[in-house]
Fold this sequence. Notes:
By secondary structure, chain A is an alpha+beta fold. Chain A is 42% helix and 19% strand. By secondary structure, chain B is an alpha+beta fold.
Amino acid sequence: METRWEAVIGLEVHVQLRTRSKLFCACANACGGEPNTRTCPVCLGYPGTLPTLNDGAVKAALALGLALGARINSVSGFDRKQYFYPDLPKGYQITQARVPFAEGGWLEIPGDPSARGSDAPIRAGLVRAHLEEDAGKSFHEGPWTLVDLNRAGVPLVEVVGAPDLRSPLEASEWFKTLHQLVTYLGICDGNLEEGSLRCDANLSLRPAGAETFGTRVEIKNLNSFRFLRQALDFEIQRQSALLSAGGTVVQETRGWDEKAGETRPQRTKEAAMDYRFFPEPDLPPLVIDAEELEAARAALPELPAARAARYRAAAGLGADEAATLLQSRAFADFYDAVAEGSGHPKAAAHWMLGEVSRLLNQRGTDLDGLGLKAGDLALLVRRVAEGTVAHGSAKEALLPALLAGEGGVDDLIAAKGLAQVSDPGAVGRAVAEVLAAHPQQTAALKAGQTKLRGFLVGQVLKAGQGRLSPAAVNEALDALLAEGRDG
Amino acid sequence: MDVTRDDVLRCARLTGLNLQEAEIEPLRRDMERLLTHAQSLQELDLEGVPPLLHPHVQACPRRPDVVEPSLTQAQALADAPDQDRGCFRVPRAL
């Protein structure tokens, strides 16, 4: 019988921290611009210079460690990782090799039913998270390599995941969840294309049910959720074919060739000791005392997972709706304000996910750019829920007027005559006119073709230009039909 | 502790040193003496002694996350043996 192989996957993600300055010097931490315009003697690795640790980077790292549920080490150290490469001017990278600032923790993701038989949430663990500095950028051209050191010394947190993932889908969910968390915390801009989050995947296969791990292959630089999934899919196919044919997997580093749709071997994996780690003599240990830890914990916002659970429980929203509201912290904050201000959290969610999202897409902007005030949308939602204004008028006339800055909600309802009409006399006349104009359909409805009711109510609402109360229209229609039967 | 000629050559490769033949054996002897000396630490009973991260007991001082002016591109490249379009230019590294 053919062996069924189980994939064992762990990810390592470099998170570029969105601080103002670099990790060990005061050069700006930014993207783009002219090459080599954000350097100084420290990040150029000049002899005699000394690194000074950026407090902002420590705070950002601490927030991430806590949000991941990790243990924060009160004392951690810096080490030198030595290698020669032109984009590493000092000849070593300052990192945390022996004792990282954070260990343990997890990310909760949905399990992959194809690997686990259920989509019940799993907690995929973290081994550690450590602070380190980024290298510069190299561009290879013919016989030359061009080096830009603007990125040299930019702060990174490397998050090392445990080998707890069992499929490419779980791996991409894990990466997505981490991406959402770091952007939500505001410690990373989340730009995958520009390398603000860089993912390496470790993968090995073992016969299903086996306890020990197989030989591990590392796939470098999977900088999109799709590439991550595709590269892992390819690699699982490659390794299982190799193993099923009686071959062995070579421990190596591979890269993903997106054009060819395959992974290819890169340089052979250097043994860890080749980096000759040793304690960074220029930096005393990083100490995070109880006071700083508690302050960081207190400053932590409500995290996405807790917030999604609150939306599902309190507003009765589905998991997908809750996830979409959490597309960014700003979006979720805006929703919270509308939900609270309107007193109708579910209706508020539908406006945010419907009309507001549509307008954002259409105009290619964010909430700030849209110019809508949460208080105005909250009042609009409340007026619709109360029946003061019909949903259609609110969408077609009131919201555009609010966006155009023409006034407040109640003023606009009055000025534009948008108040919903539920006066029985006026509604009754409108219904009677429509019935008179559609004698065949009216007769058919009376004869029991109930599906025509929707058509006729629609005609009435259309004739009323969206201002008639649907409830009142239905009542008036019932009354008129009953009259017909009586008479 | 034994240090072989291959150990010396491997370290030279890792550190980018070009050793002359005559330098190898003296260096091998020096490395052997250094490591033998360091190995004497193994004789100590360190049960229950926490690992020392750094001889400094003081916590790493931090600076506020504030940007200060950088060098200009011309200043940054002033000592570069070769440059091109604002970048350091070196023999192809990959």
